[in-house]
Amino acid sequence: MIMRPPYQRNSSTPSQRTRSSWDLLERVSATALDEDYAKAAAQRDDDPRGRRRMPRTLGSLGLIGLGLLVTATALQTRSDEPAEAQERTALISQISERESEISRLASRTDELESDVEGLQGTNEQIGSRGEELLDTLNESQLLAGSVPVTGPGVRIVVDDESEGVSGSGGTILDVDLQVLVNGLWQAGSEAIAINGNRLGALSAIRTAGRAITVNYNSLTRPYVVTAIGNPDTLEASFADTPGGQAWFDLQTNYGIHFDMETVDDLTLPAVPDDRLDTQYATRQGQLP
Amino acid sequence: MIAILGLAIGLIGGLIIEPEVPDALRPYLPIAVVAALDASFGALRAYLDDIFDDKVFVVSFLSNVIIAALIVYLGDKLGVGNQLSTGVVVVLGIRIFSNVAAIRRHIFHA
């Protein structure tokens, strides 16, 4: 920096002066002293009342102000330091806190990922188990007769003796139907219904009053017994059973009507709900 | 003599009183000090040049401080507070340097 002697005017012309910022800095240093001092001094020289070129009250007040400003600022800066240091420490501890939080969350993520994998495996297991259970349920429903079933089988129509054929007055009793049904089971039937009344595990065939009842429904003649089973063997197998023999006897000795035919497509209704309820029997052991 | 006394009173008074500066004025305090130093060194140089004047000193002192603080305040409001502070400090620094250089020449005649 070039220091110019006091009061020396910048000799460059205004157009040159604005050419570079260096000139501006020179100008700043050249006019470092307020020109007012010179003007005031010149005025005082003209003033006959004498010269006052020593600092008095006003100047002292200004200097007191300077001292106050300097100390206030210095004290301020010093008192700000601990606060800044505190802030920095707080920020550093926050950073380490957040970092540990991040690592904690990362490990939690790993944990959850392995959990998810495990649960996916379990889910697959449950899925296959569910299919197994559905199969079992389906089978159980078919066996218990709680759902309508369809399939091939035989239809047997039996009736009392026609009026006056043999004179023996053959009438079908509940026992006869029981024997018939028993024979059909023995021959390999999987579902049996009499006059549309499906036989379930709790169904009874019995005489009530003048009529035979199945599932508490009175039957009227002729009795139609439908049985689902192997259509190729059911008829022949039935003939070999004691039930078949008994019915052969009924036919020959009492003139009971008995017609058996193989049917490709039979539909049997479900067992009524009240014949599917157990009240005292409870399951032993766990569900499969 | 009275000048040195005034400065001493100001410094010691500041240390004793420990003036609390309002938070709103805090950012402008350093700039105000630099402006006050500029005015004071100018006054010392004028004193040595034998052209010192009480009124001129106090007026330049107050106006320097207030204008410097106002410029920085304005810069803060316009979002260029740091740049303007730097500019003010540079200009005042150059003035202080050249005034101190003149004072040095007066004292050491060099």
Annotate the secondary structure layout.
The complex is a heterodimer of chains A (288) and B (110).
Chain A: H1 14-17, H2 21-30, H3 35-46, H4 57-144, E1 149-159, H5 174-186, E2 191-194, E3 197-198, E4 205-208, E5 211-214, E6 217-218, E7 223-228, H6 234-240, H7 242-254, E8 257-268
Antiparallel strand pairs in A: 1-7, 1-8, 2-3, 2-7, 4-5, 5-6
Chain B: H1 2-17, H2 29-48, H3 54-78, H4 81-108
Helix pairs in contact in B: 2-3, 2-4, 3-4
Describe the structure.
The complex is a heterodimer of chains A (288) and B (110). Chain A has helices at residues 14-17, 21-30, 35-46, 57-144, 174-186, 234-240, 242-254, and strands spanning 149-159, 191-194, 197-198, 205-208, 211-214, 217-218, 223-228, 257-268. Chain A is α+β, with helices and mostly antiparallel strands. In chain A, helix 5 (174-186) packs across helix 7. In chain B, 81% of the residues lie in helices and 0% in strands. Chain B has one domain. The model of chain B has no long low-confidence stretch (mean pLDDT 86). Chain B has 110 residues and is mainly alpha-helical. At the A-B interface, helix 2, helix 3 and helix 4 of A face helix 1, helix 2, helix 3 and helix 4 of B.
Number of strands of chain B: 0
For the report, how would you describe the main beta sheet of chain A?
Answer: 5 strands, antiparallel
Q: Low-confidence parts of chain A lasting 5 or more residues at pLDDT below 50? A: none
Strand order of the largest sheet of chain A: 3-2-7-1-8
Indicate the overall shape of chain A. Answer: rod-shaped
Helix share bin of chain B:
over 70%
What is the terminal separation of chain B in angstroms?
25 Å
Radius of gyration of chain A: 59 Å
